[in-house]
Amino acid sequence: MRVPDDSEPEYDRQVFINCPFDDAYWPIFQAISFTIHACDFVPRCGLEASDATEERLAKIIRIIDECRLGIHDISRKTGEGTGNFARFNMPYEMGLFQGAASFGSRPKSMLILESHPFDYRRFLSDISGRDIFHHGNEPHRIISGVREWLHAQPIVKKMLGGQGILLKFQRFHRQLPKLLHAAKLHPFEIKFPHFLNWSELVQDWFDANRRGTP
């Protein structure tokens, strides 16, 4: 893929999503990615390609380089599993994005998410002083927060309000069984790790609604 120049809309509209990829986070991820589509931006994440010739970290760095915008959810900070290990992928990838913003030649902007206010001060105090959006694991709050952040970007002209996007999100879910049937997809084929199936289904739905054929 050609990396767009920083003056091109393609670069300005690319949004890197850095978050947990598990069943518990799936409702939040749906809200984030749906809102990105609703605002006419392009969601990207490390699940979008499975080329075995490209090492995972190299792929993430490439995607970060191609995205002007980044959403980073650092809410998974406690241990889990038999070893009680915490996952550090999210803060690590956020650091990569921050490094690209600080030392790269192209502008970048990021939104940092947490589940509860000020938890980050106990495990990542270096980011104190930033505006951190806490979502309480509630999709409707995510929709509002992501929409407001995207609306503040310089490329934006006009977009739906948060309540309007929420209503569309709810309507999409009511129609989802029919959409899956039409696309010949099983429900598990749009969940992690099938990011592209999910993203294409959402984009096709928006395209159909714009044409007046939902």
Please provide a written account of the structure.
- By secondary structure, the chain is of the alpha/beta class.
- 46% of the residues lie in helices and 10% in strands.
- The protein is built from eight helices and five strands.
- It has helices spanning 9-12, 26-38, 56-66, 89-103, 120-123, 139-151, 162-183, 195-210, and strands spanning 14-18, 42-44, 69-73, 109-114, 132-134.
- The chain has a five-stranded parallel beta sheet with strand order 2-1-3-4-5, sandwiched between helices.
- Helix 3 (56-66) crosses helix 4 (89-103) and helix 6 crosses helix 7 (162-183).
- The longest helix is centred in the last third of the chain and has 22 residues, at 162-183.
- It is globular and about 45 Å long.
- The two termini are 31 Å apart.
- The model is unreliable at 1-7 (pLDDT under 50).
Mean pLDDT: 86
Per the principal axes of the C-alpha atoms, what is the gross shape?
A: globular
Give the uncertain stretches in residue-range form.
1-7
H/E topology pattern: HEHEHEHEHEHHH
- What structural category do the secondary elements indicate? alpha/beta
Radius of gyration: 17 Å
- β-strand amount: 5-15%
User: Ends: how far apart?
Assistant: 31 Å
Largest sheet, if any? 5 strands, parallel
> What's the total count of β strands?
5
